[in-house]
Amino acid sequence: MPYHTLQEAIKDSPCKVVYICRDAKDSLVMFESFCSGVCLFGPFWDHILSYWKASLENPKRVMFMRYDEVKADTRGQLKKLAEFLGCPFSEEEPSLGSLEVNKTGKSINGIDYKNHFRKGIVGDWKNYLTPEMGNKIDMIMEEKLKYSGLKF
């Protein structure tokens, strides 16, 4: 039976899902495409809202994390993640960008995985976007996320 929403798929799955969300301005690469909702996996706001809603509806199966919180308190956030997954806490913290598959592999559309990684610095968008561009994205995100309870 095909699923129409993430919530339907999770309901029938024995798996746990962890979703780490970044500030839209720190995650985008092409400004106009982002603002118009043209992204590889659909509009950013639809993507994060599906995981946000799933985490509210099924908190034992879906964990929604914010990247800036992980950067600010890595140990504490990893501890929460380990508890959520029912795994012992490990001090080893591999970097996704350093994994061999992410250095040499390609996505389904032929884009090198390495092109999906940025520096990982919270607020680094200010080095790439003008204040006007940042404000435009803030307004789009506010409109798209209103009434969801999800704030940036």
Automatic annotation (TrEMBL):
EC number, UniProt record: 2.8.2.-
This protein's UniProt keywords: Transferase
InterPro entries (alphabetical): P-loop_NTPase, Sulfotransferase_dom
Domain Sulfotransferase: 1-29, 30-148
A UniProt-annotated Pfam family: Sulfotransfer_1
Recorded family membership: Belongs to the sulfotransferase 1 family.
UniProt protein name: Sulfotransferase
